[in-house]
Amino acid sequence: MNLITEAAKALRDIGKGMAVVSRAAEKGKHTNLYPFEMPEIPPVSCQSLALIIEADGTDRCVSCLACEKVCPSQVITIERTRNPEGKGFVLERFDIDLVNCMYCAACVEACPVSAIVTIQDFELSTYDLQTLKADKAFLDEQGRRAKQWYSPKLGVEYRNEQGEIQVAPLEQQPGGEAELLKQADKESDN
Amino acid sequence: MALSSDKRSQLKRIPIPEDRHFKPQLVGYNPKTPNRLAEVLAHSLLYFVFVGLLLLIYGVLPWLFKLPGSPLASGGSFTTTGAVLYGILAAVLSFLVAAVAALILILVLRKYLGLVQNRYGPMHNGPAGAFQTIADAVKMVAKEDFVPGKADALVFTLAPLMVFVSAFLLLTIIPFAPGWVLANLNVGLLFIVAAGTIGAYGVLVGGWSINNKFGLLGGLRAAAQLVSYEIPLSISLLTVAVWVGSLNLMDIVEAQKLWWTAIPLLISAAVYLIASLAEIKMTPFDLPEAESELVAGFNTEYSGMRFGFFFVAEFAELFLLPAIAVVLFFGGYYQPLAGFWDFADVLRGLGAEGSTLNQFGGLLASAYGMLWFLLKTALLSYLVIWVRATLPRFRDDQLMELCWKVLIPLSLIGLAVAVILRLVFK
Amino acid sequence: MSIPAALMTGPTVLEPVVGKTDEMIVNLGPQHPATHGVLQIVLGVDGERVTRAVPHIGFLHRNHEKIEESRSYAQVIPYLDRMDYVSGLQNELPYCLAVEDLAGLEVPERAKYIRTAMFEFNRIISHLVWVGTYMLDLGAITPFLYAFRDREMALDIIERTTGGRMLPNYFTFGGVRRDVHPKFWQDLLDFLDYFEKVVPEYETLTVDAPVFQARSVGVGLLSQELAVNHGISGPNLRASGVAHDLRKDQPYDAYPELDFSVITRDEGDVWARSKVRMDEIYQSIDLIRQCAELAPRSGPYLARGRVKIEAGEQRYRAAEISRGQLGVYIHSDGGTGPYRSKHRSPSFVNLQIIPDLFIGQKFSDVIAILGSIDIVLGEVDR
Fold first, then answer.
1. What ipTM, to 2 d.p.?
2. Among all residues of chain B, which has the CA nearest to that of C27?
3. Which of A7, A97, B96, C330 sits a CA distance of 20 to 30 A from C111?
4. Interface contact flag, B117 A24, Cβ < 8 Å
5. With contact defined as beta carbons under 8 Å apart, do B174 and B327 qualify?
6. What is the pTM of this model?
7. CATH fold of C72-346
8. Where are the domains of chain C?
9. Which architecture does CATH list for A48-173?
10. Domain layout of chain A by residue ranges
């Protein structure tokens, strides 16, 4: 008798499993048909690096070497010369070896002027790895092409239709909730 | 810190090409989200259309040969030429039926797995991926005919053929519709056992011949599994013979016009279904292949067409063993409760006796029976696929335990039940 | 249990023993579907029965500890993600704890809760990978796709805050690298509401399924004594009846404020290890809910400060990651980076029981046991 109840229980449990499997179809599909459907990647996501040029055409980068010093993989190479006409430096060369880069975004954390930023362009596959030894032209191009990017100093920024750079609203920024709460507190105090 | 600038400037520098990013070709992409359930059903329809069409040709062939004025038949039986021609055509057709059923079942399996696993399954080749298995078959045929250096070349070549031939030999004796059977053997049940066993040899020697340790383990597992599960399978076949009193499959189907054999012989039917799962070598009984344990088991070193033979044979069995189950236990080509009222009889009654309409009605009645047969077979095949999607696999000793300690005693009980019922009711 | 002679000498090639029945030497890996990476186990099998087992590791060795000696303290963190790549966030914590202790940084309250919630969330993700791959080892493909379906959703939530999916580089000394996404807590709670309904489905397909129970109950028995002697940790230890959990025993971050109990089972077999992990998923759901309730919504997320560690200072800190006890030992020589850095990785230690558990088992059980130990080769080889 015991054997029969055990067998019945086993069959019932197998049936339950089969029911779970057949019901799972209701949960819909979860596959993105890449490359036909592009995934929506959040602005803080670090898929690649770019250098940002302001709307008036000047580099944000001030050649301070902070990113080169902080890089754990040591893939950033910067060459600079003193600016003969005044303060600061002239950027001669800004290379990132994107092959060996591990996209930890430490350079982005270190940058004092939000010149180097993380972007969401993940399609870096190439037939020739040498194309991933990015120079400044490459990084500038990535920056021009990017719709939105993130850097800790300025937060999420995006380029509007006129080509101007704007900071995203607090609702999209990391830490936006805390900022909004602070503002709400101030208003309630007033 | 970083690479010295000298070394850096020596690197070959290539400007960013404009088309650095992969530009997808939007071929075969439907921006609408497909209804995956509808796709599975549509592919099942393919199964009915194509297998049904082939079976229809199969059934109409002798009728065509025997048309009045045909040079291939005289007085209701074939001439020598006709018999030879019919033999060749029927062999080709049965091969086609097995292969086409297998290909479509592979497609349905993939789409069904996609449905229950929250993904798409094949979708780019043809409408909803309908040509995917054809593309795979072409790929396999186009591959290099390769024999590993240390393999036993002769056995290596023969093994997939043995498995495949054993699978589609079974097709020759299955009655798809009233009168539609290639070989109406009086020892049909024995033939099932005989033809099915050849496949076990194929798997065993295939696994052994490739001179690979995983292959050897897989082959031995297959031998143990297939030979053991032949026993409950054969005993359940025997119960049907005892109950019906005939080894002829046509007689067995005719005896089920009113009640399916599965109703008195429920135990045997259940044993047959479980044992046939093991014979098909599908999860939870896929130990011979066990891809997470034995890499690919007996077909580790097989590639190209030879692997294709193993693969197609497995899915042909997914069609054939349920088909045999339908013939033996689930009323074959009869609609349920055909003893009370059968639509086929209505079709047969069309027109006057002997008229063309009457003959055509007879054909229609056969086609109607064939549809029921296909429907039942498909439902059983889908059950197997459903089980495959759910269960993990057994261990080898548990597999043997299930066979020798559960299924064989059960099948013997089923046999006793059949004998008693036969004595009481017939 | 004596150590097999083969293990003592460690030959790569075993010589088959010829006797009544011939022994066959099978190389399980390094390229094998069930070794979860590049582990090689040289098995002597007599038919289906395993007679000897010699694991070989090091195929994924990337010299992490030595690299860390030439990096500054902050530069080490992204390397830690790459040890146990399935639970990358969890790897960063013990190192951060050790450096915080040495540098005297006080972690703000809010950062503690963020770190704890992320830590537990990563445990769910890690256990989901285990469910999926383990069922794949046992021959069921469907749970694998369910697990990865839900893992993708969870990774999306992590990505919205940290910027990375598997290698987030998020925790840092004195808190977390950046503030959370505005909808972070809400996303977490929404996901947990959905996920809580799905976990019973996993249980139906795994620990409650008859075929799974047939494969797992009584298989790969790991006695309490053996587990303790080998230094096993994590769910493997707790499944053998030892209530040892660093979250309780040496609480860190927000764990002292959270209400939970250590999950143990006494069976010590494959099924118990699976059940413990399943229960830990429920426990993590509960812990994240508590974090979401208790966490302050505003306030500092990072205590900024200079990491300056005196020469000769050293520290060992450990945390209970999803695979067990991950410890980090740092020795400073007063420079910018660690003079010596050593990781006590749980998978590496858990792997030591392989010869003890494998010998005498069936070939299929070997796969089941190996999967139930839940190793990640990135962390074994480092």
1. 0.84
2. B213
3. C330
4. yes
5. yes
6. 0.86
7. Cytochrome-c3 Hydrogenase; chain B (1.10.645)
8. 72-346
9. 2-Layer Sandwich (3.30)
10. 48-173
